[in-house]
Amino acid sequence: MALQVELVSPERILYSGEADMVVCRTEGGGEIAFLTGHAPFLGALTIAQVKVVLPEGRGQPQLAAVHGGFVEVRDNRVIILSDVAELAAEIDVERARRSLAEAERQITTVHDVEVEARLRRAHVRLEVAGGLSPVGGGGAH
Amino acid sequence: MAGGKERILRRRIRSIQSTKKITRAMELIAASRIVRAQQRVAAARPYSEQITEVIRSLAASGAQLNHPLLGAEREVRKVGFVIIAADRGLCGAYNSSVIRAGERALQAEVARGRDYSLVLVGRKAVSYFRYRRYRIDAAFEGMSDQPTYEDARQVAAAVIEPFETGDIDQVQLVYTQFLSAGTQRVQVRRLMPLDTGAVAEATGELRADYEYEPDPTEILVKLLPRYVEARLFAAMLDAAASEHAARQRAMKSATDNAEDLIVRLTRVMNRARQDAITTEIMEIVGGAEALRHTRQSGAEVLSSLEGAGK
Question: What's the CATH superfamily of B25-251?
Fold first, then answer.
């Protein structure tokens, strides 16, 4: 039996379907992967990528950038809630690149949480969209 | 002079016709937007349902529930009001009914000796309260007909922060609930502290043991503001759908009225034209008759003229 995955943002459902595995990154806990039969789990997500590995023969893993959010796992259902989430295909790579360059420039002068978060967001967007040299076997097309 | 009245009427009819074109266009636009707004309401539902579900699970797990957003009872001295109206008029009683409901709720709190704080969405609400010299703490314009989650987040921030610092003790949400294209109802609901009824109800039953990362209380602290945002977002989407529905209805009746007026005025105009034509014919006939008469009794007339001339 496969996992039932739902990736939900306030404005719509980004992804809904079956998967073999879901990988995401929780706050404080680092990266975590869910397979079928995982114990009930509830976590807060950091700005990172979410990887949904589809069942055999259903194509490439779905990648999404989530900017914070929550994950709940129960009875082989994985629900990811995120107020800002984008699927890889929807990310504007150019914009993210510009934003990353901007944030990198800013962070050398001012060091505040806002800029750091922006840097992270841009980085994750690029990582997911494959606009960055793949990190940890991630987002290559 | 024949045609004067007719010309005036024709001009009026033409102006009503162009007004009708505008109201008709607005009606059609509003109608298409209702559908889209309804889809957005439906699309936003899974998120708020799931987030409620997660809060239930957390509550059941025995996370610390004395978070201020969950309504640890405190004396209410200042009540915040979030009133969601529209940026534009031409939508019947939509704006005035939300605004009036909001003002009434506010006055009721003031009468009980409490202070108020106003957070307004929609230009119409802002100008109403500003004109009446209410103290406005935050105003948002340009988002009422197609609110995004980002908009909702900004509005939520305007009340969550003062609530968390203890500046305001309660927040009421005044908006128009979209029941169907035909019915919308103004609602005054408590936004904060959250209604613990739903949470407490779930606490009774034992749930599967969860693993948490980070610990439950910390997750709850992060989650509750998102929940408030999601509720506010849902209300804003409902309000937008209601606005379009109200506008569609108002513009439909305006179009119908214009049609009626055109029919009536056309009738009056035709009668005026007919009258003018009749008068003209009468004049011609009268003239011809007089001339014929003259020819017949030309001699008499001549002699009488001569007689008068002497």
Answer: ATP synthase, F1 complex, gamma subunit (3.40.1380.10)
